[in-house]
């Protein structure tokens, strides 16, 4: 009986200790979170990061409403504020990682802070994209659509089309004019909002609109030519010319380059091209000239789009091959970004690389790794700092315009890089 009472007493003591521990941990994360938000508001982002990580370690679960102290309630969004702190320090990679955790928690989406997070996330995702260049390309494509509209509009003065202009040809012109106006309005909005995907979509729509209108113009002019061929001989010759054009288009399409691999777009366009070739081959001897020329135009348009897709894919493969870093340089980068700065500094010997680009990257990683070690050791080793500055000067001698990617390195290192000459 005494042993049973002893066990019961021990269990009670254990439960009391656990409740005390949980209560202490709960108080710790609330205090850390409150202090972190105050540090964030004061612009002390490093202190905020430290406290937020401590709060997350005690309680990683976001909540729309928690009791902090007394009668004060607030949302608990540690990953959101951790991401905001990293963002304010220029570390987009860490910010995005923290924001993704906030999104996965499923709480931030219903909070007022969500709109700010979306805006900052777009800023991070669009870094390195030349909005001006792609917007100019989209504007050029709309200009090309306008040129096609001007050429097509000239057909209104063709008397041979007057009878059927309103019903057959004018609708295409009206649609193209409306499309050009709408695309310019959308381009202004997408450029102001820095939406690269929307700008690229506008560019593609303008290209497709110009292709379609040019195709219709070709058909219209072919019809004019057919009407003008009053004699049976002229009609026969025109028909033979259309058939030869179709056969030439079919032969050209059949001889198209078919690289191994390729993109989904290439595969889809090649299937469409083969279908159009089969349709053209099945056009009988009694097929009208207009139908033959229309099919020829369709084959030519699909072939043109396929060739563009092949060129884009080849360029992409070449670009990927050129961007592939040497294996030794990749090991240096992996060591640096995993926090093994001693290994990164030891491996980063620029003399081991033959190309200037690789040498510059090796110098950059060695300088950044030694700077991390310098800061970690209390900024006491002047020889380490001298080595860092020497590597930065070597980089600038090789490429005076070189600038490190700001999201990959600390603000203090970037500042030292700018100052070292």
Helix content, binned percent: over 70%
Q: What structural class results from the helix and strand content?
A: mainly alpha
Shape: elongated
CATH topology of the largest domain: Serine Threonine Protein Phosphatase 5, Tetratricopeptide repeat
What fraction strand?
Answer: under 5%
Strand elements, count: 2
Which architecture of the largest domain per CATH?
A: Alpha Horseshoe
| pLDDT < 50 runs, ≥5 residues | 13-22
Mean pLDDT: 86
Q: Could you characterize what this model shows?
A:
The chain is mainly α. The chain folds into 4 domains: 2-125, Tetratricopeptide repeat domain (Serine Threonine Protein Phosphatase 5, Tetratricopeptide repeat); 132-214; 229-324, no CATH class; 327-419. The protein has 16 helices and 2 strands. It has helices at residues 2-41, 45-58, 78-88, 92-105, 113-125, 131-153, 162-192, 196-228, 232-254, 264-281, 289-323, 327-337, 341-347, 356-376, 382-398, 411-419, and strands at residues 63-69, 72-76. The chain has a two-stranded antiparallel ribbon. Helix 2 (45-58) packs antiparallel against helix 3 and helix 4 (92-105) crosses helix 5 (113-125). The relative contact order is 0.05. The model is unreliable at 13-22 (pLDDT under 50).
């Amino acid at each position: 009986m005494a042993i049973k009472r002893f066990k019961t007493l021990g269990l009670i003591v254990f439960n009391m200790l656990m409740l005390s521990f949980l209560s202490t941990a709960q108080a710790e994360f609330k205090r850390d979170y409150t202090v972190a938000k105050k540090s964030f508001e004061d612009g002390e982002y490093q202190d905020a990061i430290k406290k937020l990580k401590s709060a997350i370690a005690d309680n990683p679960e976001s909540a729309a409403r928690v009791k902090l102290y007394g009668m004060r309630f607030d949302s608990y969004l540690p990953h959101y504020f951790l991401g905001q702190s990293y963002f304010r320090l220029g570390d987009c990679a860490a910010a995005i990682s923290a924001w993704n955790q906030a999104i996965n928690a499923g709480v931030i989406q219903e909070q007022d802070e969500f709109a700010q997070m979306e805006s900052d996330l777009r800023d991070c995702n669009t870094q390195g994209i030349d909005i001006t260049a792609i917007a100019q390309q989209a504007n050029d494509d709309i200009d090309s659509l306008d040129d096609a509209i001007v050429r097509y509009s000239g057909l209104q003065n063709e008397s041979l089309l007057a009878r059927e202009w309103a019903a057959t040809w004018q609708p295409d012109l009206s649609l193209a004019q409306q499309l050009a106006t709408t695309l310019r309005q959308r381009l202004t909005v997408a450029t102001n909002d820095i939406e690269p995907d929307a700008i690229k979509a506008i560019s593609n729509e303008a290209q497709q609109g110009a292709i379609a209108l040019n195709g219709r113009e070709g058909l219209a002019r072919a019809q004019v030519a057919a009407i003008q061929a009053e004699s049976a001989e002229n009609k026969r010759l025109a028909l033979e010319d259309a058939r030869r054009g179709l056969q030439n288009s079919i032969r050209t399409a059949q001889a198209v380059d078919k690289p191994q691999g390729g993109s989904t777009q290439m595969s889809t366009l090649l299937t469409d091209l083969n279908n159009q070739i089969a349709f053209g081959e099945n056009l009988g001897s009694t097929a009208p000239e207009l139908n033959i020329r229309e099919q020829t135009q369709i084959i030519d348009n699909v072939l043109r789009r396929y060739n563009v897709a092949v060129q884009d894919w080849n360029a992409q493969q070449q670009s990927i091959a050129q961007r592939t870093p040497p294996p030794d340089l990749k090991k240096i980068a992996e060591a640096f970004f995993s926090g093994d700065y001693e290994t990164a500094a030891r491996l980063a010997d620029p003399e081991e690389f033959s190309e200037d680009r690789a040498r510059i990257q090796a110098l950059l990683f060695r300088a950044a790794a030694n700077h991390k070690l310098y800061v970690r050791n209390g900024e006491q080793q002047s020889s380490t700092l001298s080595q860092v500055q020497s590597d930065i000067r070597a980089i600038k001698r090789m490429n005076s315009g070189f600038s490190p990617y700001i999201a990959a390195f600390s603000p203090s290192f970037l500042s030292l890089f700018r100052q070292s000459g």
